[in-house]
Amino acid sequence: MEESKTRIIISGGGTGGHIFPAIAIAKALEKQEPNLELLFVGAKGRMEMQKIPEAGYEIEGLWISGLQRKLTLDNLSFPIKVISSLMKSNDILNRFKPKLAIGVGGYASGPLLQMAAWKGIPTLIQEQNSYPGITNKILSRKAKKICVAYEGLDRFFSADKIIMTGNPVRDAILNAQFSREEGLKHFGLDPNKKTVFVTGGSLGARGINNGIKQCLQTFRDKDVQLLWQTGKFYYDEMQKGLKGNDHNFQLMPFVKRMDLAYSVADVIIARAGALTIAELGVAGQAAILMPSPNVTEDHQTHNAMSLVKKDAAILIKDSEAEEKLSQTVMDLLNDSNRIAELRKNAAALAIKDSADRIATEALALIK
User: Fold this and answer.
1) What is the pLDDT of residue 69?
2) Which of 88, 120, 252, 307 has the fewest CB atoms within 10 Å, i.e. is most exposed?
3) How many angstroms separate the CA atoms of 293 and 22, rounded?
4) Owning domain of residue 294
């Protein structure tokens, strides 16, 4: 291992919302520091262990998982996992000898950054949400810098550590041309019909899917096109609810070309994860946000409200979807001025050089 190398560890993962920004930060670091050596640290069995090597980076895994809210057998092993992960983190840090550790959220970032701080290695954390989880609250005490995407985080972190950087988005969205014509052709959609794009993430979201089921007859009556990412767990169930002549409805378990999906949409219905919020801003889209009610500290509602307060999105609760979603969608589709206003306000909130800002702050800690 060359002593002259600038070695940095990026730790975290668990979901695409952590992994895609981590990869974006890695690429930004490579642009700014040619003498760079990177190592990722993730949680064994989580998707980063596959996605990070696919992106061309090395990764090591920790035996760590989240603490469940209710009493489970997994919770009994949690202290053992923490001790094991701290010991493995210590071993990784001793071998790799990084000059900086970056945490992007997710189970693995906790033990790795905690051990780095104990060993005197500078740490930087990226808080993606408008309401931080307990891990980042703990890590923030010893972190040198905290990169955030929302205002008001000084309620939780030391104000002198906070830097507004926004959330990095993947290259496929950041550098997309958002060609509507190409998107319509790709998905086999009619250019003369209004289009709603629905996404609950790769696994799907039951609340969104149940709400959309209540919209189907209205969409049939009004000749509205639907591009619907159901999630792999719900695809078969949602497909059974269609009629033989539902040619306006394109159901997919997973949409690979999100840039093209954004390009065809008049209105988007989505969860309010940090990555989704960032991508909607970059794409400049009009969205109806349905925050997941099953996340820590209800942080998706806090994320969504940051847009709603700026008139950059509309919020509907999961519990209200079956009653309100259909009318809300149709009112928006029939109001082109309202769509234009939401798009303009969403785009105004976007920070497109977020990964570069984080990389600059990270490298400044070393230099």
Assistant:
1) 60
2) 120
3) 25
4) 172-349
* Whole-structure pTM value: 0.89
Q: What is the pLDDT of residue 105?
A: 87
pLDDT of amino acid 176: 81
Residues 297 and 199 both lie in one domain: yes
Instruction: List, for residues 65-74, the tens digit of each pLDDT value.
Output: 766 666 666 6
Same-domain status, 311 and 231: yes
Euclidean distance between CA atoms 264 and 185, whole angstroms: 10
Burial 194-212 (b: 16+ CB within 10 A, else e): bbbbbbbbeebbebbbebb
**Would you state the pLDDT for residue 24?**
94
Structure-token match 């060359």, residue found = 2
The list of the chain residues with pLDDT below 70 reads 1-3, 66-74, 76
Q: Residue 42 has what pLDDT?
A: 93
Asked if 181 and 319 sit in the same domain, the reply is yes
How many distinct structural domains can be found in the chain? 2
- Residue 72: what pLDDT? 65
What pLDDT is stored for residue 107 in this prediction? 82
Task: Evaluate whether residue 87 is within a structural domain.
Answer: yes
Assess whether 224 and 330 both reside in one domain. yes
What is the Cβ-side half-sphere exposure of residue 338, based on CA atoms within 13 angstroms?
Answer: 13
Same domain for 68 and 191, yes or no, is no
CATH number at residue 300: 3.40.50.2000
CA distance linking residue 276 with residue 313, whole number of Å = 12
